[in-house]
Amino acid sequence: MSATSYLAVDLGAESGRVMLGTLDQGRLTLEEIHRFPNRVVTKGESLFWDLAQLEKEIFTGLEKAARRGEPISGISTDSWGVDYVLLDERNTPVAEARCYRDPRNNASVERLFRKIPFSAIYAETGIQLMPFNTLFQFEAGLHASPELFKQANHFLTIADYFNARCSGVAAIEQSFASTTQLYNPQRQAWSEKLIATLGLSPALFPRIVPSGTVLGPVTGPLREQAALAEAKVVATCSHDTGAAVAAVPAQSGRPWAYLSSGTWSLLGAELASPIMTDAAREAGFTNEVGLGGKIRFLKNIAGLWLVQECRRDWEAAGLKYSYDDLTRLAVENGPAAAHLSLGDPRFVSTGGMPEKIAAHCREKSLPVPTAPGQFVRTILESLALCYADKLAVLESLTGEKIETLHIVGGGTRNDLLNQLTANAVKRKVVTGPVEATAIGNILIQALALGHLGSTAHLRRVVETSFPTQTFYPVS
Fold first, then answer.
1. Average pLDDT over residues 431-457
2. Last residue of a domain, one of 210, 235, 260
3. Among 79, 227, 364, 430, which residue is least crowded by beta carbons within 10 Å?
């Protein structure tokens, strides 16, 4: 079979990229075509995403790729989870898209719990309690601006919105639907109970399509580009973690867990069916859907967001560090004097992260970091210890002993964190690929278009195409 090429639009909370993937004789190569910032827009106390600017950048990237003249077989967008946009019947937004860190979500939890207890919500969805889940965002929106929901014909999640802008087809892909806390993974459908609890019309909720659904050909100005004219738009795993987990180069039949390491850390295992027990609810584990309908049974952990926010604050104060600089300072600092409880809700919101960490330490009578190297070492050791704790809980809930922890995503570049993690979990850690989200996006396109035969085939391509690094625990 001749080489085939695909475009992945990979949207993160800090930046977005258009990536070109070429599959040739069982090997995948990647090339970044266009990178652009993604910044939260602040209006008063409210936080929004600039969808118009994101769309402009996405189409710029797609057009850059088209000008190369290489025929493109598929296009797909993935993004962070839970966020959405309300749309009219012409797929035009009726309001700005809120960022999941918007502070208005916090009050929605208590209001919703007056109508339905969390135990009932978990029994419907199997999703852990996080105030920014779409369920609570909807409640917050209905409380603040009910007229917007009356104006809306339907909603789409972020990645699926951009897939619709490329294809004209409005649908929500299953992996993203499962992040909303409005989806029932046992019935594989929207939760009628929770929709009724919110008082929303079921008509607002679009059809859900499986991972790897071909939505249709590109439409509009994209068809005018010769290299894109025959491209199909594919709903791969629209949720970036779903795409990343699909690209884990794990050996089938061997017990393994994954850690998607980036702004968020998501630690879990692939299961055949959800675990929606009281024990899973109390442990804060979540059941999201992945490629082939597999359940991504996982725990959300604060992640490298804490380092990102510290760096942002230091830069605002005139102290500029690269991430490599900060890791070097953390190595030079030596072992941390304090470890954080990463579930502290103050760590979720933007701004003032160094002071939030200092306040956390003071409240717990822990030594307070003072220099950047101390802060970063404290964060990284806290993450590694948290991973070990959650991996033990994962084994308890699934009844399976994990042999290998696979780490994918941007966090794999941090060798200090990887070694600290191996030390903490006391087992082999395999890191890579770094670009797991884009790789998963592209190879699911290849699978959907018949260029790969199975998920196992997909993972063999990953293993063949991209290097990994192994870390063993040391005392």
1. 97
2. 235
3. 364
